[in-house]
Specification:
Layout lengths: L15 H14 L3 H18 L8 H12 L6 H12 L4
């Protein structure tokens, strides 16, 4: 992120131990404290925004979903009856 593009500023109040931890982590990553905070806050924001709208499936669940989509089960008698009632009541 180019320094010239940054035009907004924010502040945060930290506990002393939080500040020390953040400074240490930034040093380990070779970043300034400001860059470390911005990078990690932005990543957390992206995850927070998109997490409720995406699924992460295990390999087993993914395989189950793909199999169900490629080879859907035949409708049960109960499902057929429900569709019939829906159509009789004005459904499509």
């Amino acid at each position: 992120m180019a320094l010239a593009l940054r035009t907004e500023r924010t502040e945060a109040r930290l506990l002393p131990e939080q500040k020390k931890r953040i400074e240490r982590a930034a040093q380990i990553k070779g970043l300034s404290v400001s860059d470390f905070i911005v990078q990690n806050a932005d990543e957390a924001a992206i995850q927070t925004i998109y997490q409720p709208t995406s699924w992460i499936l295990s390999n087993r669940d993914r395989d189950f979903l793909v199999e169900a989509m490629l080879n859907p089960a035949k409708p049960s008698e109960r499902m057929k009856a429900a569709v019939k009632r829906y159509r009789e009541r004005g459904g499509e």
